[in-house]
Amino acid sequence: MCGIAGIVRYDQPGAESENQLRAMLRALRHRGPDDQGVAALACAALGNARLSFLDRAGGKQPMSDAEGRWTITYNGEIYNYAALRAELDGRWRFRADCDTEIVLAAYAIWGESALVRLNGMFAFFIWDNVEACGFAARDRLGVKPLAYRHHAGLFAFASEAKALLPCLPSRPKANLDGVLEYLVAPYFSGVETSMFEGIEYLAPGHCLRIDREGLTVRSWWEWEPPDHFDADSGALAEDLAARVSSAVRDSLHGEHPCATFLSGGLDSTLIAALAARQLETPPTAYTIQFAGQDGFDYRRSRIVRSDDTPHARAAARELGLSHHVITAARERLPFDLSEVAAINDALPAWEQEIAQHHLARAASATHRAVLVGDGADETHYGYPFLLDHEASSTPRRIMERFGRAPISRALIADSTALFDEKYRALAESAGYRWDTADERLHATTYLIVTRWLPRLLHNGDIHTMAFSLEARVPFADCRLLALARRVDPLLALSDGEEKGMLRKAARGLMPEANRIRRKSALPKDQRTAEIYQREAGAALAESGDFLNVWLELEPLRALVTVPRALSENERSLLFRIIALHHWRRAYDVQTP
Prior knowledge:
Structural class: alpha+beta
CATH topology of the largest domain: Rossmann fold
Distance between the termini: 34 Å
Radius of gyration: 23 Å
CATH superfamily of the largest domain: HUPs
Largest sheet: 6 strands, antiparallel
Helix content: 25-40%
Number of strands: 17
CATH class of the largest domain: Alpha Beta
CATH architecture of the largest domain: 3-Layer(aba) Sandwich
Strand content: 15-25%
């Protein structure tokens, strides 16, 4: 796992971009503390900050082939790299034993068609010295990030948008539309454009080519349902069980042991149970809790439906895991809010990022890699609101379910209508319709996989890698994804429960009480009203002119002035206001 960066300029040799590149790498040092490398090429300069798991000596990056035609900087894990190496043997002169060279060789031999052969998580850039062109690609679901800037003869890319700030001509400006989407639909934001003006994200399942003619971007993988769904649920469950098991096994490779994040729910417990089966020593598990969590009122919560801790403890005991329960101190919350806003340059979208922050910090003290259950809910129909035809009937209903921000009328009359139209069009362009209940379920699932999930994966990557911790995502295994697409959502959501087929597949593989537990999201602290009101009040006082570009401030001032209990949606709104304030300060961001 690494931080990657690079600059392409056709008007100067790569060596002249080296100082700028090193400034970019300094911003990525947390992603790769083990080593740092730079390659100055004819028209390009490539850099890599490395967190090593395989062949530490031979896997240094950037890496070139023996003849010096191709040079790669790569971030990720290819789980089928051994099989690919055997297939490439005899067609490539291997000099290392790592997946970086496998990706380089696969591209050199197969070209862009190599992408469909890669099973794993990845973002990489390969420069071709002969053709004087570059090629970049990102994995199917967007587990590994890639941001870029293309302007006035400069093409630059990096693992994180903030590493591209040295390539801007002046202080960064906020992206007007990006921040608007963040405030209206935070869980769908930060997928296409970054929050910084002039910096884009390469979308999941996409690749790009840069040459003297310019930049071209295309999709190489799409989430599409099959022509028909599997009718034999028993056989499908058996296949799912086998695929999840192999995905977890493949995620455990490397020279360092993997920990697990354990919530006590279906996904994380299944992964922990399968890892425990395949390791001589069961993995260490980490669970997050907040003070007084056992007394929270979960009846009004939209997505956190119960206390994780007792369920996680019970699972850890039954599986024989070394279990650490981390308590997030409430008095640290003002500092946590500032830290997560600086870490997540796409702006923190969920309060649960505080929990991710504490989990990653704790696990990184003794581990370099952690297995996570991300992706299961999105690809296996895991969200309870999918059971409610009205709640998921339109993108507008989903947005309204999670609250509204008082968007400035001077900016736009109806922001919810704007994004409702945008998300409808995205689904329709992929062939989905909104006419019947079944069609709306498919269209909503498409948005969840292509917008909601990439945002979640971004958050997971950026908070773990902030502590040099690699998050591995078994549910992103490409064979498991192909199988998940054969599951009829009506079957997965039958009998009024989410993830029905995955639950069936997990029978006998994990503790039964955790298998049948209903979906509950990563916890968030319900007793933050006083802190949020105080911190949001300070944000309005200091960043009012900045926030006023997007927001009506008077309703917000009324929300923070009188101490009172806050609803979940009100807390979430204040969380985002505070995050936007700290993000502006951390990067000295100007108004658009």
